[in-house]
Amino acid sequence: MIAELKLRQNYLKDEVIQTIYFGGGTPSILSPKEIEELLSNAASIIGFNIEDCKEITLEANPDDLTTANLIAWKLLGVNRLSIGVQSFDDTLLTQLNRTHDAKSAIEGIERAMSVGIIKHSIDLIYGIQNQSHESLILSLKTAINLNPEHISAYALTVETGTALSSFIEKGKEKPIDEIIQAEHFEIVCKVLKEAGYIHYETSNFCKPDHQALHNTGYWKLKPYLGIGPSAHSFNTYTRQWNIANNAAYVKAIAQHIIPAEYEFITEKNRWNEFVMVTIRLQDGISKKQVLDGFNISKWDYLEKQIKKWEPKYYTFDKNTLRLTEEGRFLSDNLVLSIFL
Predict the structure, then answer these.
(1) Distance between CA 205 and CA 211 in Å, rounded?
(2) Who contacts 75 (Cβ-Cβ below 8 Å, separation ≥6)?
(3) What three-state secondary structure class fits 332?
(4) Which of 81, 88, 89 is nearest to 113 (CA)?
(5) Euclidean distance between the first and the last CA atom of the chain, given in angstroms as a whole number
(6) Could you tell me which of 106, 105, 101 has the C-alpha nearest to residue 89?
(7) Is the distance from CB of 57 to CB of 87 less than 8 angstroms?
(8) Exposed e or buried b for every residue in 204-225, given b needs 16+ CB within 10 A?
(9) What does the pLDDT read at residue 162?
(10) Adjacent-strand bridge partners of 126
């Protein structure tokens, strides 16, 4: 990955680096020494000071939250953790093939707090087969009691080729129940709102002024550079994605070839990406944003298209379009009607 950094050292030319995110896999299996090498080389090659970064996030499994790891990460500058708890129900954790249990997850999060990494996000999943409303509420309240500044809650999805997909096809597992998922989403929104969390993005909730800075950059279409197999990059006029095959990735890098496919962002793509991510945010899509980035015809088009939606899914005050909680759950479907 360091070799790829050298090949891409001018990708974010003139951009101020404010956030770094170790994710898209299980980066917590890297040793602190390996993380230090990546950070120091990134700073040297790209040209920035780690101390100036507002947010350095590391995705971590609860199993990896040992005191030694936590102290080492903090010394390296990691100031935020995204912790893949998924559930605090041990039966569901076994079903999801997770190696941790609820007790070890709670203890790991408490250790992170004790060593001074107080910024963390707890990631939960809802809509799991056999997950009751009561189980979901218990997980939410357990998470809230740990006092994280951020909670992410995602609907379970079935990826083709996964074990879960195979089990469903063979009848060993129930298919995803969209009605249950919608009910679960409503529970998530209600419980977290009552606990003082702001629903600032469809799947993300935070205490006031504690939005995830790095992810917010994605949603606001700011440039970013991704390094490693399957990593994505965006510089406002092209989108790139590295090949997923590890061996092919290593071979390309050894030949000084950036192992990525890319596409130029057309006007159509730019609009579609803008509405796709912006509509997920609490602030919604404003007329000013559309006029600044596009033109009045796009705003007229937006107004025309949303009239096809059921009123319960959105609010519209002639200057801003926002989704209601019901609309947010269906945002992926609704946004298709405002694509070009």
Answers:
(1) 8
(2) none
(3) helix
(4) 81
(5) 37
(6) 101
(7) no
(8) bbbeeebbbebbbbebebeebb
(9) 67
(10) 155
From first to last of the 340 residues of the chain, give the pLDDT tens digit.
899 999 999 999 889 999 999 998 778 888 999 999 999 999 999 999 999 999 999 999 999 999 999 999 999 999 999 999 999 999 999 999 999 999 999 999 999 999 999 899 999 999 999 999 999 999 999 999 999 999 999 999 877 766 677 777 777 778 889 999 999 999 999 999 999 999 999 999 999 999 999 999 999 999 999 999 999 999 999 999 999 999 999 999 999 999 999 999 999 999 999 999 999 999 999 999 999 999 999 999 999 999 999 999 999 988 999 999 999 999 999 999 999 9
What's the rounded Cα separation, in Å, for the pair 196 and 148? 11
Q: Is the dihedral of CA 40, 41, 45, 46 positive or negative?
A: negative
Separation of alpha carbons 124 and 253, rounded Å:
36
- What SS3 class is residue 69? helix
Burial of 93 from C-beta contacts in 10 A (0-12 / 13-18 / 19+): buried
3-state SS assignment for residue 99? coil
SS (H, E, C) 142-202: HHHHCCCCEEEEEECCCCCCCHHHHHHHCCCCCCCCHHHHHHHHHHHHHHHHHCCCEEEEC
Helix (H) or strand (E) holding 103: helix 102-115
- Residue 76's φ and ψ, nearest 5 degrees, are -80, -10
**Residue type (1 letter), 4:** E
